[in-house]
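hiii so um. not sure if this is the right channel but i have a protein structure encoded as tokens and i wanna go backwards to a sequence. like what aa goes where. can anyone help
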């Protein structure tokens, strides 16, 4: 990931934010550098950079999939990303209602708990920025 900035890295930064990507790069070691390159090229360049869906649409689908699969840390990260993707709290709620029906109530229940906590943290951080 050193050197020139790829389309995947630009998209990753647009969705997750500069601070998140900078921290991920700073934590990268020789061991996980190939993994970081893989997700930047495959997820961020080959999927998230496609023109057919907006970042908002991809955000909602990603939130639903992460919730359905029980990937709690990544779910919180992508809920935070909604501040940049344009997905609203209503969008998050609707995605999680789909999870309840198509992936199960326990998965949605956990995801709703994570969403509520993450949205509250985001609101508190936003209030802190205004002070």
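sure thing!! here u go:
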């Amino acid at each position: 990931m050193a050197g020139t900035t790829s389309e995947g890295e630009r998209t990753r930064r647009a969705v997750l934010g500069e601070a998140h990507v900078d921290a991920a790069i700073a934590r990268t070691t020789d061991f996980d550098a190939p993994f970081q390159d893989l997700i930047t090229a495959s997820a961020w360049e080959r999927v998230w950079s496609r023109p057919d869906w907006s970042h908002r649409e991809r955000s909602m689908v990603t939130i639903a999939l992460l919730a359905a699969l029980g990937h709690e840390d990544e779910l919180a990260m992508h809920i935070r990303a909604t501040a940049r993707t344009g997905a609203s709290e209503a969008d998050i709620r609707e995605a999680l209602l789909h999870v309840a029906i198509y992936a199960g109530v326990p998965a949605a229940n956990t995801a709703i708990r994570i969403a509520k906590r993450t949205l509250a943290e985001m609101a508190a951080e936003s209030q802190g920025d205004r002070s």
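oh and The mean pLDDT is 95.
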